[in-house]
Amino acid sequence: MAKEKQQKKWFSLDLGSNKQTSANSCGCGKNEGGCGSHKPETTSRPDGYRQYFGQKMDRRDAFRKLTASLMVGAGAVSTSCSFIAGDESKEKAQIDWEEQFKGNYKLMTEDEKKATVDRLVRSYQLRTGKTLKMSSQDALDNVLYGYAFNISKCQGYMDCVNACVEENNQDRKSEMQYIRIHEMQDGKGFNFNEADDNYYHEVPAQGHFYMGTQCFHCDNPPCVDVCPVEATWREKDGLVVVDYDWCVGCRYCMAACPYDGRRFNWSKPEVPETEVNKDQHYLGNRMRKKGVVEKCTFCVQRSRAGKDPACVEACPTGARIFGNLLDPNSTIRWVLENKKVFRLKEDLGTEPKFWYFMD
Amino acid sequence: MSIGLCLALGLTSCKHKEGEYHSVVERIEAMSADYDSVTVSSTPFLGEIETLEVHVHGQRFLIPESKKQIKGFACTECHTGSLEDLPKRRKKKAHWDIKLEHADSHTMACTTCHNPDNMDQLTSLTGSQIDFDYSFRLCGQCHTQEYKDWSGGAHGKSLVGWAPPRASMTCVNCHNPHQPGFPTKWPVRFNSQVQKERE
Asked: Domain of life of the organism in this record (chain A) (predicted)?
């Protein structure tokens, strides 16, 4: 057990056989990850194929790992040993091989994060001939992102939705959209049963008001708790993110989210090459694959650079306010302290970092 | 029974190692107590935009300068005399593209905001001069709640991003002062896949 723990770059599902380990930390019952409160262990563990080569493993382990890697391995070996295959296809095979055996992003060191990002950039270059910029920037210190939405200001134009789709390289074929704008009837409150999120008429319509929903980046995210492989977690700056390469597509998180914040790729996402946003982040808008879950990341590629998310920038009415909750002088803090704010389904205890308010 | 419940609650509420907070609001309060600064800045994103610092309702922040954006400023290049001296009814209008739809004619006319004796300046309701770059002071005379919300950041938009120093758009960046309301329009998007799923 101890040996395995030292080498592992992933989390194992705790089915109750390791009860004694939960004594040392917090009430979430796990001693790593999960509730997002734990720092990844800093002991250096090998990543990629080095996890297997030059490592001591028993026969059973060896068989298991060999079987898992057979497909990739066979392909890579045949390409790399072939005289006919070019240097590029050999490199492609090498990248695929290393990507196959990389660890969970949450457990990677700085260098490993940079290495996987470099591989993904190179892989894209080899496949399309186009260069993109991908970041693995970590959370900034002294930052906790928060969002406020002014219900009196939103007019239902949906500029935010379009900006989000374009910024985040969402699948055009299934017309995926993280944001939903709900047209609600005046005098009925937040009645989602009678609201329409796919209207097409002149807006604002008489007797209606508009409110938007998306991922609320809960401080106590139920989606994170249910993930069996810990492919989704809460970052230090409060963003709830997904490692698309670690997601197994079970969609437990979608069932757990009370806000319909997550989306699933039922088919391979399609974005015309000319429309691909090439300013990317590993945890954000990089291209996804079929069978993985994705969601709003408050545009991690923008917000960690100091910019507003695309929806905030696109909103023509100023209904969307974004900022640093830890900065006492930020505009988001002013809204929380001076306006009458509330959150959606507050009684669930999910602690969304997304507040609604009115003029 | 109730002790057990309390114990269970106590255990589950300890969600974060940062401390034992019952809510995110509590966490924000505790963690921002010793807030220092962040490593990112909005300054690089301002680029060519020239800004000026304003001080409103105890808030200090940047707004973009406006005068250079006005076509044909300074106004005194044409308006050499007082507005009073201009002929009252003329067939050909100089400012043909400006139609005043701001309150009604009992409440507002050109000289409610424009200084008839010095066209390069705006005028407050009591007759003091207001520079075009500080036109928000003019708007704030009547729209007091919006003025307060804007100074705090609840009304309006940030100029380039959330990072400090705070830079906000000013009134005239979104509102046409002569027609400040927004017309109705069609949404920019309709999701045909959702429509299909509903059918």
From this structure: Bacteria
Residues 129-158 of A with CB under 8 A from B: 140-144, 146, 148, 150, 153, 155-158
The residue segments making up the domain with residue A238 are 135-359
pTM, two decimal places: 0.84
How many independent structural domains does chain A possess? 2
Rounded to whole angstroms, how far apart are CA atoms A297 and A353? Answer: 12
| Same domain flag for A202 and A303 | yes
Say if the ipTM goes beyond 0.90. no
Cβ neighbors of A105 (< 8 A, separation 6 or more) are: A113, A116, A243, A245, A246, A282, A283
Nearest in space to A302 (alpha carbons), one of B157, B169, B163:
B163
Is the same domain home to A67 and A108?
A: yes
- A166 with A54, same domain? no
Residue A312 φ then ψ, to 5°: -65, -45
Give the single-character DSSP code of B55. E
Cβ <8 Å between A159 and B188 = yes
Does A220 lie in the same domain as A335?
yes
CB A230 within 8 A of CB A315: no
- Domain shared by A74 and A151, yes or no: no
Which residue is it, tokens 């010095």? B118
How many other β-carbons are positioned within 10 Å of the β-carbon of residue B32? 18
Instruction: Tell me: do A177 and A252 sit in the same domain.
Output: yes
Chain A residue at shortest CA distance from B186: A202
Residues of A in contact with B10 (CB under 8 A): 27
- Does residue A36 carry a pLDDT above 90? no
Min CA distance, B113 vs chain A (Å)? 24
Same domain, A184 and A331: yes
Produce one character per residue of A242-277: b if its CB has 16 or more CB atoms within 10 Å, e if not: bbbbbbeeeebbbebbebebbbbbeeebebeeeebb
Asked if A322 lies within 8 A of B24 by C-beta distance, the reply is no
Q: How many CB atoms lie within 10 A of CB B129?
A: 13
Instruction: Give how far Cα A8 sits from Cα of A4, A50, B158, B198, Å.
Output: 6, 11, 44, 46
Contact partners, residue A63, CB within 8 Å, separation at least 6: none
**A330 in contact with B, Cβ within 8 Å:** yes
pLDDT tens-digit readout, B154-199: 999 999 999 999 999 999 999 999 999 999 999 999 999 999 999 8
A159 shares a domain with A118: no
Q: Which of A152, A267, A307 to mutate to test the interface with B (most CBs of B within 10 A)?
A: A307
Last residue of a domain, one of A131, A149, A169: A131
- Sheet-wide strand order for A320-324: A320-324, A145-150, A354-357
